[in-house]
Amino acid sequence: MDRFNSGKEGRVPKQSNQTINRKEKYKLKNKIINYIRAGYPGLYLVSPEEQRVEAEIKQIATELEYRLFFCSCVEGLVDVGKGTNNSANDPLEALVAIKDIQVSWR
């Protein structure tokens, strides 16, 4: 009986945490894609799991054929495709560096 929600008629198996996490991840991925397609000039994401978020964003950028830049207080502004970084460690310096980037959109 622990695999089912309750003793109600038409028992429905409980969803595992893994299934729920996959659904939430899919919803978040679609939100990010929608923001990018809507023309948002940048996304500010905060997460304790920086590497997982970075991997997911890289995958999305590849799927959408967009160039990707990360800003880090340690590494500065990083062009992920070229593997180069700018020493703009201060957020204001990073914004100035972003303004100066010559980007061919797509």
| Structural class by sheet pairing and helices | mainly alpha
Main beta sheet: 3 strands, antiparallel
In order across it, which strands form the biggest sheet? 1-2-3
Helix content: 40-55%
Question: What share of residues are in beta strands?
Answer: 5-15%
Round the Cα radius of gyration to an integer and report it: 20 Å
Query: How much is the average pLDDT?
Result: 77
User: Using DSSP, what is the number of strands?
Assistant: 3
- The unreliable regions are 1-5
Number of helices: 3
SSE arrangement, N to C = HHEEEH
SSE blueprint:
Elements: H1 17-37, H2 50-64, E1 69-72, E2 76-79, E3 84-86, H3 91-100
Antiparallel strand pairs: 1-2, 2-3
Structural features, described:
The chain is mostly helical. It has three helices and three strands. Strands 1-2-3 form a three-stranded antiparallel β-sheet, with helices on one face. The longest helix is centred in the N-terminal third of the chain and has 21 residues, at 17-37. It is globular, with a radius of gyration of 20 Å.
Summarize this entry quickly.
The protein is mainly alpha-helical.
Keywords:
single chain; 106 residues; mainly alpha; three-stranded antiparallel sheet; 43% helix; 10% strand; globular; disordered N terminus
